[in-house]
Amino acid sequence: MPPKIRFGREDIVSAALEIIREQGIEGVNARAVAARLGCSTQPLFREFESMEHIKEEAARLAMELYARHVAEGAAREPISYKGTGLAYIDFARREPQLFKMLFMSNRVSRPVPEIEDPSYELVISTLMERISLSREQAEEFHLKMWIFVHGLAVMTATKYMDFTDEELSAMLSSQFMAQKALYENKNGSL
């Protein structure tokens, strides 16, 4: 009779995700995941072809957690676009290792936001509605805002700076209004 499988794909991915949360993606290897599960490495490779596939599934799960966090932030804040930015920074604060894996990895090419970030459509549609922009205008506006927000999130994730929620809210409001004013001057009107 074949041995009973105690650990499935979800268990393995969850264990890998917990290791990432504690040690970063660099801490994920077959021995570490097996130790977390209390088993040999054999069940890992019964379910997955390689450690790379386990890491990819853990990253997918981390992105789902991030997307939920941003959607909840947008729903919580009276100005949902601002809520998405605050939630992005809050995710960096609460889940620094997941944030680093998802948003601070080496890149050779420009990212494709709608593929890499499941909250992208929510953000763009919210911005289009908030200040009556075309999709192209909203994407350009958001890229410029995202560069600012990403900088704050990186400083938060790396503990380079520690901002209060009030400071972050004020900074995002100021940057948004400055960006909007520049955009209005550049394009005549929104």
What does this structure look like?
The structure is a single chain. This protein is an all-alpha fold. It folds into two domains: 9-52, Arc Repressor Mutant, subunit A; 61-187, Tetracycline Repressor, domain 2, CATH 1.10.357. Helix content is 74%, strand content 0%. It contains ten helices and no strands. Helix 4 (51-76) crosses helix 5 (80-94). The longest helix has 26 residues, at 51-76. It is elongated and about 60 Å long. The protein starts with 8 loop residues before the first helix and ends with a helix.
Instruction: Figure out the total of helices.
Output: 10
Give the SSE string.
HHHHHHHHHH
* Net shape: elongated
Q: How far is the first residue's CA from the last residue's CA?
A: 70 Å
Rg: 20 Å
Domain count: the total is 2
Helix/strand class: mainly alpha
Briefly characterize the structure.
The chain has 10 helices and no strands. It is mostly helical and 190 residues long.
Write the topology of this structure.
Blueprint: H1 9-23, H2 30-37, H3 42-47, H4 51-76, H5 80-94, H6 96-103, H7 113-116, H8 120-131, H9 135-157, H10 165-187
Structure characteristics:
elongated, Tetracycline Repressor, domain 2, Arc Repressor Mutant, subunit A, 190 residues, mainly alpha
